[in-house]
Structure formats: structure tokens, C-alpha cells
Amino acid sequence: MDFSLSPELRELQGRTRRFIAEQVIPMERDPRQSAHGPSEELRRELVQRARAAGLLTPHASRDMGGLGLTHIEKAVVFEEAGYSWLGPTAMNIHAPDEGNIHLMEEVATHAQKERWLRPQVEGKTRSCFAMTEPSPGAGADPSMLATTATRDGDDYLINGVKWFITGAEGADYVIIMARMEDGSATMFLSDMDRPEIVLERSMDAMDSCFTGGHGVLRFTNLRVPASDVLGEVGKGFRYAQVRLAPARLTHCMRWLGQARRAHETALEYTRKRQAFGKPLAEHEGVGFMLADNDMDLHTARLNIWHTAWLLDQGEKGNYESSRAKVICSEAEWRVVDRSVQMLGGQGVTGETPVMRIFSDMRAFRIYDGPSEVHRWSMARKLVHMAEKAHAAAEASA
Amino acid sequence: MDFSLSPELRELQGRTRRFIAEQVIPMERDPRQSAHGPSEELRRELVQRARAAGLLTPHASRDMGGLGLTHIEKAVVFEEAGYSWLGPTAMNIHAPDEGNIHLMEEVATHAQKERWLRPQVEGKTRSCFAMTEPSPGAGADPSMLATTATRDGDDYLINGVKWFITGAEGADYVIIMARMEDGSATMFLSDMDRPEIVLERSMDAMDSCFTGGHGVLRFTNLRVPASDVLGEVGKGFRYAQVRLAPARLTHCMRWLGQARRAHETALEYTRKRQAFGKPLAEHEGVGFMLADNDMDLHTARLNIWHTAWLLDQGEKGNYESSRAKVICSEAEWRVVDRSVQMLGGQGVTGETPVMRIFSDMRAFRIYDGPSEVHRWSMARKLVHMAEKAHAAAEASA
Amino acid sequence: MDFSLSPELRELQGRTRRFIAEQVIPMERDPRQSAHGPSEELRRELVQRARAAGLLTPHASRDMGGLGLTHIEKAVVFEEAGYSWLGPTAMNIHAPDEGNIHLMEEVATHAQKERWLRPQVEGKTRSCFAMTEPSPGAGADPSMLATTATRDGDDYLINGVKWFITGAEGADYVIIMARMEDGSATMFLSDMDRPEIVLERSMDAMDSCFTGGHGVLRFTNLRVPASDVLGEVGKGFRYAQVRLAPARLTHCMRWLGQARRAHETALEYTRKRQAFGKPLAEHEGVGFMLADNDMDLHTARLNIWHTAWLLDQGEKGNYESSRAKVICSEAEWRVVDRSVQMLGGQGVTGETPVMRIFSDMRAFRIYDGPSEVHRWSMARKLVHMAEKAHAAAEASA
Amino acid sequence: MDFSLSPELRELQGRTRRFIAEQVIPMERDPRQSAHGPSEELRRELVQRARAAGLLTPHASRDMGGLGLTHIEKAVVFEEAGYSWLGPTAMNIHAPDEGNIHLMEEVATHAQKERWLRPQVEGKTRSCFAMTEPSPGAGADPSMLATTATRDGDDYLINGVKWFITGAEGADYVIIMARMEDGSATMFLSDMDRPEIVLERSMDAMDSCFTGGHGVLRFTNLRVPASDVLGEVGKGFRYAQVRLAPARLTHCMRWLGQARRAHETALEYTRKRQAFGKPLAEHEGVGFMLADNDMDLHTARLNIWHTAWLLDQGEKGNYESSRAKVICSEAEWRVVDRSVQMLGGQGVTGETPVMRIFSDMRAFRIYDGPSEVHRWSMARKLVHMAEKAHAAAEASA
Q1: pLDDT value at position B396?
Q2: Contacts C3 to B, Cβ<8 Å
Q3: Predicted confidence (pLDDT) at residue D43 exceeds the cutoff of 80
Q4: Does B379 touch chain A (CB under 8 A)?
Q5: End position of a domain, from candidates D234, D260, D291
Q6: Is B309 in contact with C2 (Cβ distance < 8 A)?
Q7: Does A378 touch chain B (CB under 8 A)?
Q8: Do D321 and D177 lie in a common domain?
Q9: Which of the residues A371, B254, B262, C307 could staple to C324 if both were Cys, CB 3.0 to 4.6 A apart?
Q10: Residue C396 above 90 pLDDT?
Q11: Tens digits of per-residue pLDDT, B254-308?
């Protein structure tokens, strides 16, 4: 058992922390941000800064130009990056690109990587991931997938509507999940500048930290050659899992940084602001919230580290990443909600970054599986494991 | 003990409900709304509709042109009005005007009423209430009041900065709380179109339901004649209580309407949306949230009714309105948070009104006294009452 | 709307409060109590005191010798009785007798009433209610009823095992729920001193406030004549509802008294005990718990009153009594848990009555339907009502 | 970062698990247990079994005859021991002996160790720790220490009353905390069989897992020679910290075992018990509780491991052990409360071990500092660290 970080990792952590403090936070009030996220121009400027600092796309393999970070290393670095809502954009580790890069590294062909992945790792392009659909299609229940891919000669024709597609506006390529005639699912790659792909609208969302916002995409007879299938035909659901377990965890990491920012902002404020004869922080009611914040932050971090370590050991970690996702999304949310409360009027206005963090983070308890879906899948696994253990005990008796 | 509503009140409830459904909700997507609230033009159009429906400023006295509602009647009618975020604006019962109208009725002179109150009750003008100040001034602790009023002949000169002043932009008159040289506080009335009053900026806030947003006001040697003192000199803190107890309660009422809206939106959605083979609402995890919502809504309503009844009996109800404020602000918030969760992606985007309600309501746990300040004052009162009871028991022994 | 109590009810409330304080609480340390409850001898002595005070079996009809209390009157009186764990025993309003008396009044024949009910109302006898069964029989799901009643001439033969039968040891008669050959259920009355009824054991339970504890009963070819059927054959489930809705509510009332006792004990202690330079109650962390207790007590009381009023209007109140049961059992539990915490070492030892209350009350979140079963039935009802409203709106459109 | 256990530790874990399952759990229904704990005879029999299994007093140094476990090793082994409430008694790692052994190893002289510690490590004797006092003495606030030690020649005379003294009845020696004339505190060692030490009574407590229960001790002119001072005069508060930080953590470890037992009992039950057409565990409402239990157990374990690792690095860990104590005591309590709820009637009766665990564990949120005291000391530390960081940043700027 060892909870220490290597000197190299501590150096990288410190470097990332300074980069965020000195190069990214000063950009947070940059006007090139709208309710739908930072502009592409702002994104490119931030990426340029990360490149100069040697911190661009650090999770990509060294072959592709990244730093080849392990999961534990990502845990440490992504938390630091998340301290500013612009940090993940700068370092090219924001959703959905971070997860897409991971998936492409795992599954794409050499040609696909050269065409789509390499420029993305270089921060030149962006991607989106088209899985979620409006009712009655695939939402929390992926088996309801309604978008279809039908074989047409050597090609596939894709038809359907997707929504909540993060980063859709301005994305260069898209990974599309579609249902085959046999009921299985396949992932397809496509450039976005195709007339058969229409961005019907960008949705108004509570968050505004994702470049490209959240869009509604319509695919009408989009023709995709067999060479642009991502991985094998029919393995879409399996790849979704390959993408999802680590992607869930990197959400936990980045939002941990945001939650820590909220907490530290509240701590600074309550140390200084007087009420009823003493600093707010010296009121037990406020002090208890500070203590609860620290407990939640620490708990989230330990869960991330443990799950990251498991993934580094080669475990799939489906159960553990579900668990970490529920624990972190709820703990980090409590931290931000308490921070708003401690800040009072400052917490619900643009006077501090916390209002923004509050709005940006609420969806985290919903995406990548709402807490309820994860709790349910965890329960089934617990029962299943108990049944197996029971059967094994009976067999050996 | 009787929980029934009179036939007249049920009629008024039904009429308000229909007015909101037919005249107000269709305006919710009107573009004349910004991040700082509905425009004055939109407000006037809504007021015109309420006037036509006989529902304008119903809490004002009949003398002034209102319906002279009791507190219980307000409880029923304001909940209905609150069902749409534009409802209180339409019916002229939004904060801070609703509380200001109440305070003016209680304290203002005949001349003051004719000059400022009557046009306000008619929906022609708006007001604001300037009490809260930036650090180190008056926040949750009103005793830290830093804005000063100094005697100058028959007049007073007011100097200071106020912030979080709801409705400031475009308000016609303002009630200013200022500290006297002897440490007491006084309320002053002033028109807003005075060069000595500067709206320094409108603050970016999480909510966007208040016409005029939240502003920062600077008073520089604002000269107020003695005839524009509201009530008596030195009684500012007492009047703040007169205003606050019922004002807190009307917040509870209006937000109850919003919370019910969120719940009913989630109920409709989960009844219809399928996942994992059945409607969402038939999943226990979702059903439990629906049940919890109903329990919280019911609890909030009972607390409002009970406190309103007490006020109708002539009780001051300071303790009880504190209690109702904490119970309602927290119960209603839980309802809205659960509704977001049940709605999933729909809850965190503009697809339903719930995202808007979520953002609008968060500040309710903070303004008119954060939960923590109310809990603390309740605790002191409980101890004080126990001490009195103990002393009385000893005396009679 | 009226929250006031009539002068007569206030007098009865005061009289009950004094009776409990002066006649019952001094008996709490009486040694004639075991882990399985007060002894029959102690019960009779307490009953004698209540009889002398004119407070015995007050919910029974005046015909039967009670005070014929309405539900609202019960709400007020039972809360006072519950202030001591011996109070309900003294006043003959403890479970299960209180509910059995109600059911007998509603359903029993004149002969049955004279034989079983009248002596019970007079406090001379006790009863039990045999519904719950060990796995795989009827628990939270009554449809799993396994005990059978088979016709044999003019009689019925009852066979089966029941457990968690409160008050079984020493009960004079029993109401037995059994399954008929057609799948319906019937209630049967029987004296307990029959060789075909065996009390297999008394269960060790966390609570110790019920005379007769909780027993396991075995019925072996128990012969019951048709004249001892309670109500009509086949209507057992319906009568269970008749019994249950008000019985649930009287639990809420009695436990409210216990929760208030715990709170007041903690309030007294924290007012006096010093730590870190001031009384405990002047620490915000403790004061917040006092305030939360008061909010929970008040919320529980309002929910009880509202539901009692509904029942007094002739409503069945199934939904509302479910709701009140969940709200009260959880709110009252929180009060007691917080009181333990405020009392520290005193809370987990016999130095105060609170340890006892804590152990006695835990089961309340489970019996008469665990919170989970109530939440689920509430959810189904909410969905059902929404569907009906929707259909009605469609029909009228 | 490494979360793996060494092969040796895994072997020891497995051996302890088997010992508890095979040698200890079968003793749980042994009648030699009362409301005040296991009898001395039962304790000796259990100790004999642990000795035979090579698992007696494993945390003591090898010199003294233990296994010299590190904190991390204790974390793993003590969790296994805690799986049965008799496990810690058997392995001689129960409170307060476990903490006393640790303190004696750190502070006692060679002669003191040979006299008191060695037989205790061998399981032949027991000890108690006399710090807590009745009001107005030392409770959560140790500075209120009222027991005095006055110099009398070469000896000290100790006078005072202590309560909640775990293990007092039958203990062989006692460590007494007393106030010196200069306001400092000193620890004294004394045999218990002295006429100047009177066990006034054993307290009735919610728990019943500690041999010797909880007693009230009166010291009247107890004469203690200077050679029986534990450590240095005047360092009592410092030694209390030496004892407390690890002692808090071992409580977390042992109760984690109990919480896991409760969870696994509920899991077994809900896997098998049917209701409403399927096993309880397949109801989402129950499944969510299982998932929440696993999250709480995992969180508690990670916090224990992390803090134990820190202590193994030589850190004092005062802050971290406070944090772990709050997190674990609350998380483990939630697990047990949920397990009771899932078990229904089985959870509140002696049908399963869970009722017992529930009653035994409640005090853990109170002793070794109630959650409220820890939250407050954590808050002060967070503020203090922020102030130091701020000052350092200013200094370097």
C-alpha cells in the first residue's frame, strides 16, 4: 500500500498547477465565451498556450504526440487542469474529445488514426460522439438505439437523429453509434462537413464550458464506406464500454478540480467576511460546511485514485468506475452547493467563479449514466457476486 | 381545526390557475427577456393581462385598488401565480414590490401613499429596496449597516453603496435603509431618477426572473427631506422586521408554485419516457423521487398555511416565518433538484421550464436570511423559551 | 382554514399532559418491565390510574365507555400520551389494541363486541393481531398470506404460523388473518387460551414498550365457528385497510410524543452543560440540531393534523395516511437520533429516557409498511392520478 | 501509488477471516453475555482460541509478544476481527485495551511494562482508561478536567469521579487522567483492587460488546507513587493525543467489520426473500440501498487505509484521523441503518446479528469526540492552513 506520488508526477502536478494559475485563469473573463461555450478562436489560443507549456493532450500516447499518462497520472494532472473551466479545453482533455482520443487509440486503424486522431491530438481539430437520441431512442438505456445503419454495397447508409451531442457545432469529425439490421450496434467515423449531416440546432444548456455546446444532429442517408467503420462491425456496445469506464473517471477528475476551486473560493471568503462579530468561518455552521467539503473532496480523490490504479493494473473496472462516478458526482456537487451557500449573494452572482461552476456541474450527476442507473447496475452486480460466492461455497462443501 | 378553503377562495384559486395557464405561460418564450429578467415592455403587457382578469396586485388593500387578501388567501393565490415565473410579474406580486407595497401600506403617510404607492399598486411603476451592502457592510447581519444618513437642516444626506438590489434597473422609487449618527437605522423614500443615485452596474445572477435584475447602487449626498422619511426616524430595523416576516412567507408561496411546476413536468415526462422496458415512473428509483416530491410539496404548503393563519390571527410570527422559510426553501429546492434528475438531459437544457426554475430558485436558500442564520435565531429562541418556561415553573413551585 | 384547538380539546390536552407528568412518568423506572415490555401487573396498575383520571380508552365510542374522540382529538391527546412510553399502555391506546378496538367498533357484531370488545375497552383484557408471517409468507407484501382457513361443516380450521405478533404473550383474544380456498382473505376472532394456539417463543426485539412483546404463534387445526368470523368472509384485505389507515396515523401521534420528549430532554441538557466555554446549546452546531428538531416536530404534527382532519371528513385517506406515515416516521426518527447526538454519552446510556426512545422507535420506519413500500404505492397513485387528469383533459378537449 | 496488499498480509487477512468464521461466530450465542458485555470467563475462552490461532494481541510489539503490526496491517486485520462483535475481545484488540497497550508501549517505563503491559498483552489482564467525567467535568472538552492530583511527599493523591469508563468492572489496572495544581494534566497508573477506587455502578448502555461494560469510578485519596506516573508529569494532554489518533482509527477498522457484516446479512436476506413477485434485492428501492452500502463501506475503507499509511510514514495524523473518524463513523452507521431497513422485522429483532450491531454502534458517532467536535477542529485547521498559505504567498511576493 502506498499513497505517495513519484517525484516526476509531483513535478508535473506543480507545472500544471502553475500553468492553470498563470496562463488559463487570467483568460476566464475573456469575452469570446457564450452560453454555448468558448469560441473556437479562444480554444485555439488556449491550446497554443498548453502546447508551449508542454501540456497539450497529455493522455495521448507518446507515439501520437502525447505524454502517455497512466490513469493515476491522469488523476493528478486532470484535477489540476479542472481547476479552471478553461483548463481542459486548453490541454485538449475535455469531453468528448478526451474519451474519443482514448477510444481511437484503442480501436482505430492506422489509416484512421493518421486521418482523424493525429490532428486532434495536435489540438487542430475537434470531434463529437453521437450516441444519445431523443425519445423514444437511446438515453440512459442504450439498448433503445434508433439510428440505423443499413448495408448498401460496400457502404453503410446511416439515418437518425441524435441530441445532447457535446461539441457538435464546429466539430471536425464524429463517431456515430447506429443499430444494424441484426440488432447489434456499430460505430462509424465521418467528417462533419457532409451535407447529409445537419446541425438542426444548438440546445440551451445549464452548462457553458464545452466548446461547441450541445447540438441536435440529423443524419439523412449518410453514406459511410466500410473502411470508416470504427473497429469491428457489431461491436458498438462493447466499444462504448471501452470508452465509457475511463471517460467516466476523467469526468470525476476534472470536476474534482472545479469542486476544489469552489471550496477554496468559499474558504477565502469566509476567512475574511465578518458577520455577527467574527469571520464567517469562525461560525460553527460555516465551519462545518468547510469540514464537510474537505471530507467530500478527499473521498472523491481517494475513489478516483483507487479506480485509476485498478485500470492501470489492466482491470476493466466497470463496476468500480460506476461506483466512483456516483460517489464523485454527488460528493463534488455537495461541495459546490455548500460553497454557494457559504458565499451567500456572492455565490449566486458572477462575483466569483462559483456560480459558473454550479451551473456547469449539475449535469454531471446525469450524463455518462445518471446516478440511478449506476446504482441499479451496481446492485445487480452485488447480487450476482453474492450468488457466485454462494454457489462456490456450496460446491466446495 | 379546519383545512378547507372557502368557496370564494377556491373560485379565486381556479381563476388564477386558468389565468396563468392561458395568459401567462404562453408568454414564457417571449424574447423580451434577458439574463437580467423580463423587459419593462413585457412586464407592462403582462400587467395589462392581469388587470383585465381582475387579478392585479391582489394583496393590496381594497382602498388602494387591490383585493385585500388575507395571508391565507395569499398563500393559495400566490402559489398559483408562481406556477409560471412570469406570473408574479403579471400580477404585481413579485419581490421586492410585493413586500414594499405591504410595508408602505403599514407605515407610509397618506401623501407618501398617493405619491408612490398608488401608481405602484396600479402596476404603472416599480420600486426597489436598498438594504444589502458589499463587505464589510450589511449582509446576513443587518447590524453591519454602513450607509449613513446625516442630518443637514430639515433634510438628510445619504451616502453609501448597496448591492444585490433587486429590480434596481428601471425602478421608479427606492426605500433606503441607512444608519443614523446614534447607531439606529431609518428608512428613506426617494425617486430613482436623481443624479445622486447611480446604478453602477447590473450584476450577473443565476436567476433571471426579476424585472430590473440585481443592481449595485451608489448614493452620493442624496438629499432627502424629512417628509420622505418612511415611518419614524430610528425605527428602520423594526420596519425591516415588519416587511420581512410576511415577505419571507410570500417567497415560500411563489416558489411553491415553481416547485410544483417542476414536479408536474417531471411527472409528465417520466409517465411517458420508456427505459429498460417500462416507463421511467414505473422504476422504483424514479417513483421514490416522485413520492418524495409530493411529500416535500405538501410539507411546504402546510407550513405556509399554518404560518399564514398565525399572521392572520395578528401574531408577528417572526419565529414561525423563519421556520417556514427554512423548511420551504429547502423542501422546494429538493423538489426542483429531483425533478432535474428525473428529466435527465431534458432537465439541464431549455427543453423544459425546469432548468430555468432550477437556476432561478437556488438563491432562495440565501436571501431574506440564509438557512444558517434562521437556524441560529431559531435555536436561540428555543433556548430562551425553555429558560422562560423553566423560570416560570420554578416561580410557581 | 383554522389551526386552533377548541377550548374543550385544550382542556383535555392539558389534563392528559398533567396525567402523564404526574401519574405515568414516575412509574418509568418501575422494575416490573423487562426486555419484552411492561408486565401485566404494571399494566393494570397504570390502567387503574388512567381510569381514575377519566382518560381510559378515550378513542372508543361513548357507547362502549370511551370518550368517542375524533381523529383530530386523538391527534392532540395521543401525542400527549406518547410523551411517556408507558402513557399509551396506561390509557389503553397502545398498538395493537388501539387499532383492534377501532376495527371491532367498525366491523364486529353486537355479540362479538359484548364478548371481546367491552372488557378490552374497560382495560381488563388485551388482544393481538395475527397477520405477519415468516418467509415465504406475508410480510410487507400481504398478498403472500400463507395461513389457511378451510371450511369444515359450519366451522373453519385455521393452520399456519405468524410472527412479530405484538402483545401475543398474555393476550386474551386474537384477530387472525387467513387465506380462503378461493385466494381471498378472512379475519377470524378467537380466544387465546386454546390448545390449538401455541406461543412458540417471544422474540428479542429492539423495542421494549409493548406489553406482551412480540411473539411467534402457531395455529394447528384451530376450529373457529362461523359466528366468530369478523365481518364478512373474503373481506380480510379490505378490513386490513380499514384498520390500517387510522392505525398508521395513531402511531405517528404517539411517537410524536416520544420524539418531543427526546428533543426536550436534549434541550434541557444542552442549555446547562458547558463545553468550550459556553453552554452546548450556544454552539451553532448544537443549536442547528435543536432548530432542525423543532422543524421536524412541527412538520410531523402538521401532517398528522391534516390527515386526521381528512379522516374526520369521512375520507378514506389511504394515500394521505401513507404519506403521513413516511413523513412522521422519518422526521421523528431524525429528532431522536439528533437528540442522542446532542446528549453525547448521556444519549447512549440509561441516564436519560432518550436511549430507550431510540431503541423503541427504530422499528416504526418498518412496521405498518416500510417507508419503501409506502413510497412505491404513493408513486403509483401519483402516476395514476396524472393519467386520469390527462384523460379527463383529453376528453373535455 | 499502490493499493495492493502484500502476500503476507493477504495470508494474515485470510487466516483472521477463517478464525472469526470458525472459532468466534459460533460463540456469539454463548449465554455468558449480559447487557454489560461478555463475561470474563467467556473472554478468557475466546482469548485462548486466538492464542492457539497465533492471532492474540497482534498489534503489540514482537518484544512484548505481539505481531508488531503496522497501521496498514492493523487496518486489514482489525476489519476482519470486527466482523464478529466477539472478535476484538478474542484477539485482545478491543477498546480501551488496544489503545492502552499502544500508549504503554510508547510511554511506559520498562518496569511499568513488565508489571502491567506484559500480562495484558498475554491476554491475562484487562485495563481501563479513566478520562471522561460527569458534568461539569471533562467530556467532549478535555480542558474541563476536574479530577485532581495533589503532591503529597513523593506520592500523589488523586480525587475525583469518572464515568463512561469502558471495561471498568473487572479491569486489573487503570490509567487515570488528573489535573495538577498548575492546570496541566498527568496520567497515573494504578491497580484497580485498591479500596480508594470504588466502582459506584455499571451504567446501562445501548451497547453490550465491551467486557466490563461502562462504569462510574470514584477515586478518594488514591495514593500513587511517583514511579507510577505514566510518562512525564504535566504531559497528560499530549499523551492523550498520542493515544487518541491511532485509537480513533482502530475504532474505524473494527466497526467497518461490523458494518460489512450487517451489509452482507442484508444482502443474503434480500437475495432470497420474495415480495411483490420477485426477490427484495431486485426492487430498485432495495438495490439502491445495497449500492449505497457498498459505496459507504468502500469509502470508509479507503479513508482508513490512507490515514493508516500516513501514520506508518511517521505523521501524527491528528487532522486526518479526525477526518477518518467522522467519515467512517457516519458511513458505517448509514450502512447499518440501511441494513436494518432492508431486513425489516428481522432487522429489529434478534433473528439476525444486525439488531445487535445497530445498538452497539450508535455510540461510535459520539465517543473519541462527537462528529461535531471533530468537524469544528477540522474547520479551524482548514482556516489556519489557508492563513499560513496566504501569509507564505504574501511573503514570497
Answers
A1: 84
A2: 1, 305-306, 309-310
A3: yes
A4: no
A5: D234
A6: yes
A7: no
A8: no
A9: C307
A10: no
A11: 999 999 999 999 999 999 999 999 999 999 999 999 999 999 999 999 999 999 9
Nearest to D366 among C276, C345, C363 (CB): C345
Give the residue-averaged pLDDT of D75-91: 98
D205 CA: distance to closest CA in chain A (Å)? 29
Nearest chain B Cα distance for residue A377, angstroms:
12
Question: pLDDT tier at C135 (50, 70, 90 boundaries)?
Answer: confident
By Cβ distance, the residue of D206, D348, D351 closest to C355 is D206
Q: What is the CATH number of the domain that holds C391?
A: 1.20.140.10
Residue C62 lies in a domain: yes
What is the b/e burial string over A131-152, where b = at least 16 CB atoms within 10 angstroms of the residue's CB? bbbbeebbbbebebbbbebeee
Shared domain check, A282 and A243: yes
State the cell numbers at B89.
Answer: 410579474
Q: What is the mean pLDDT of residues D246-256?
A: 96
Does C244 or C68 have the greater pLDDT score?
Answer: C68
What's the domain count of chain D? 3
Minimal Cα distance from A333: which residue of B? B337
Q: Which domain covers residue D150, as residue numbers?
A: 127-234
pLDDT of residue D218: 98
Q: Which residues pair with C349 in a beta bridge?
A: D205
C-alpha cell belonging to residue A258: 472545479
Model confidence pLDDT, tens digit, residues D301-347: 999 999 999 999 999 999 999 999 999 999 999 999 999 999 999 99
Same domain, A339 and A270: yes
Phi then psi dihedrals of residue B217, to 5 deg: -115, 135
With an 8 Å Cβ cutoff, are B310 and C3 in contact?
A: yes
User: What is the C-alpha to C-alpha distance for residues A227 and C59, in angstroms, rounded to an integer?
Assistant: 81
Instruction: Write the CA distances from D152 to A212, B82, D231, integer angstroms.
Output: 82, 77, 19
Residue D285 to residue B283, Cβ atoms within 8 A: no
CATH number reported for the structural domain that contains residue A43 in this entry: 1.10.540.10
**CB-defined contacts B:C, below 8 A:** 136
Q: Which residues of chain A are within 8 Å of residue C283 when distances are taken between CB atoms? A: 284
Q: Which three cell numbers stand for residue C376?
A: 412505491
For residues A157 and A193, state if they share a domain: yes
For chain A positions 199-218, those within 8 Å of chain C (CB to CB) are none
DSSP letter at B233 equals T
ipTM of the predicted assembly exceeds 0.90: yes
Residues C220 and C358 reside in one and the same domain:
no
Quote the cell numbers at residue C226. Answer: 362461523
pLDDT, tens digit, 9 for 90 and up, residues C162-198: 999 999 999 999 999 999 999 999 999 999 999 999 9
Q: Are A345 and B139 inside 8 Å of each other by CB? A: yes
Tell me the average pLDDT across D280-295. 98
Say whether both B142 and B225 belong to one domain. Answer: yes
Residue C133 belongs to domain with CATH number: 2.40.110.10
What per-residue confidence (pLDDT) applies to C37? 94
Q: List the beta strands (DSSP E) in A44-145.
A: 127-130
Chains that touch D (3 or more CB pairs under 8 A): A, B, C
Smallest Cβ–Cβ distance between A1 and the set D3, D374, D386 belongs to D3
Return the pLDDT at C9.
98
C285 touches chain A (CB under 8 A): yes
- Residues D351, D321, single domain; the answer is yes
Helix A318-343 with A371-396: angle, nearest 10 deg? 140
Residue where one domain finishes, among candidates D176, D203, D234 = D234
Residue B45 lies in a domain: yes
Rounded-to-integer distance, Cα D93 and Cα D253, Å: 11
Give the distance from residue A92's alpha carbon to the nearest chain D alpha carbon, in angstroms. 25
In a domain, C117, yes or no: no
Which pLDDT belongs to residue B242? 86
B142 within domain boundaries: yes
All residue ranges of chain A with pLDDT < 50 are: none
Collapsing DSSP to helix, strand or coil, D314 comes out as coil
Q: Are residues C224 and C246 in the same domain?
A: no
Q: Which candidate from D279, D309, D326 shows the least CB-CB separation from A3?
A: D309
Task: Kindly list the residues from chain D whose CB atom is less than 8 angstroms away from the CB atom of residue C272.
Answer: 135
Report the chain A residue with the minimal C-alpha distance to residue C282. Answer: A284
Residues D163/D177, Cβ–Cβ less than 8 Å: no
Check: CB of residue C243 under 8 Å from CB of residue C99: yes
Q: Are the beta carbons of A291 and D375 separated by less than 8 Å?
A: yes
Report residues of chain B scoring pLDDT below 70.
none
Do B291 and C372 lie within an 8 Å CB cutoff?
no
